[in-house]
Structures are given as C-alpha cells and as structure tokens.
Amino acid sequence: EAGVTQFPSHSVIEKGQTVTLRCDPISGHDNLYWYRRVMGKEIKFLLHFVKESKQDESGMPNNRFLAERTGGTYSTLKVQPAELEDSGVYFCASSPRLAGVYEQYFGPGTRLTVT
Amino acid sequence: KNEVEQSPQNLTAQEGEFITINCSYSVGISALHWLQQHPGGGIVSLFMLSSGKKKHGRLIATINIQEKHSSLHITASHPRDSAVYICAVRRRSARQLTFGSGTQLTVLP
C-alpha cells in the first residue's frame, strides 16, 4: 500500500509569488490533515478535510491560504501571495475513518522557502 | 504555554545508554502519539497510546492519564536512533493533533 505522498519536496519562491502544494493521501482514507512547522516552532495544525468537505479550518493563518480536496482524493494547499513568514515545512497526514481514534500517517513534507 | 510540553529539548547519549524522553500535557485527550523524524525525512508514527504501556523492539512508551504524562524510553540506544522525537496529543474534542516542540536526540558511537 502506497503511503502519503507530497509534491514538491522543496519549493523556493519569491515573496509575492504563488505556490501550490499537493498531497495524495493513502487510498480510501477519508480524513486528510494539513500541518506546518515554521522555523524553531512546534508543528501546528492548519486544517482537516473529511472526504471533500472542510471539517475544521481553524488553524489556517489567513486568507492567503486556500485548501481544496477534489472529489475527496488528493488535496492542494495554495499560498497566494506568499510572504516570508510562510517559510517552513508543510506536512500532510491521512487517517482512515471518521469515528474512533486512528493513527495518522504522515507524508514526507514540502519544504517551502520564501525569499 | 504550549498544551504539550516535552523535555529535554536536546539530548546527547552514548551508544548503549538507556534514554527517556518526557511529555506532559494539560488538556483532556483521547490518544497520545509518539512520532519520529529523521533529518531531512518525514514523520513516522512510533506509538499511539490511550492507556498503559506499549513496547516495540527497543522502544517503550508509557502513559499516566491521571498525571497527564507520558514517557518514551529507548533501551540500548544506537546511533541510528538519532532523530527528533515528537509527542502529540489528540484532544477529546478534536481530530487533529497538537504537538510538542520535539526532542533532538543524538546518540554517539
């Protein structure tokens, strides 16, 4: 079974540009989470999808961030326009069911550098 | 103050030593996770606990729900155990994880 994949692994963009990160969860996993770690800080939650619906987006920092999950499969996280403080590692995770407590399976992360 | 506190932040050990990393949390939880991240690597789940103790190879994780405390132990540590170890909790009212700041472990040969 393929794990969670993320693309790209690393992105370097200039301030003001747009970047789109992609996450492919484990097939059949209804829950998809986005997290990020900015320099020197702990990993923080951004948002949670259940299938194609946003269940909780309380961690999204501002309206420059837009997440979508087409057809309940892969998800994209777009940052437009990017700012310096957006630099960090963006992780995606998925888990199989809505009810119960299940492990979350993490992707390798996308390292975003905004210059 | 973060809801999940880990200690120590950095830990250097000699190969073969017994290692303990601690995690305290201040909220009601449904589960606690121990995660591992190697340099440049992704995050791997080591344990998910809601009570008691779990063991996998040289790794042991314990949790005391009443004291809101968990420990991760590594027996007979090896340089390949060098990584960041992260404690994360799932709050009772949420599905996402809340993370500690991580413990950077370096095991010297």
Could you list some keywords that capture this structure?
heterodimer; A: 115 residues; seven-stranded mixed sheet; four-stranded antiparallel sheet; 11 strands; 0% helix; globular; B: 109 residues; mainly beta; 61% strand
Shape label of chain B: globular
Beta-strand percentage range of chain B: over 45%
Decide which structural class fits the backbone of chain A: mainly beta
How many angstroms does the end-to-end distance of chain B come to?
36 Å
Helix segment count of chain B? Answer: 0
Report on the structure:
- The complex is a heterodimer of chains A (115) and B (109).
- Chain A is mainly β and 115 residues long.
- Chain A contains no helices and 11 strands.
- Chain A has strands at 5-7, 10-13, 19-24, 31-37, 44-50, 53-56, 65-69, 75-79, 88-95, 105-106, 110-114.
- In chain A, the strands form 2 sheets. In chain A, strands 2, 4, 5, 6, 9, 10 and 11 form a 7-stranded mixed sheet that branches. A 4-stranded antiparallel sheet of chain A has the order 1-3-8-7, with no helix packed on it.
- In chain A, a hairpin with a 5-residue loop joins strand 7 (65-69) and strand 8.
- The radius of gyration of chain A is 13 Å and the shape is globular.
- Chain B is an all-beta fold and 109 residues long.
- Chain B is built from no helices and 11 strands.
- Chain B has strands at 4-7, 10-14, 19-25, 29-37, 43-49, 52-56, 59-64, 69-74, 83-91, 97-99, 103-108.
- In chain B, the strands form 2 sheets. In chain B, strands 2, 4, 5, 9, 10 and 11 form a 6-stranded mixed sheet that branches. A 5-stranded antiparallel sheet of chain B has the order 1-3-8-7-6, with no helix packed on it.
- In chain B, 35% of the residues are buried.
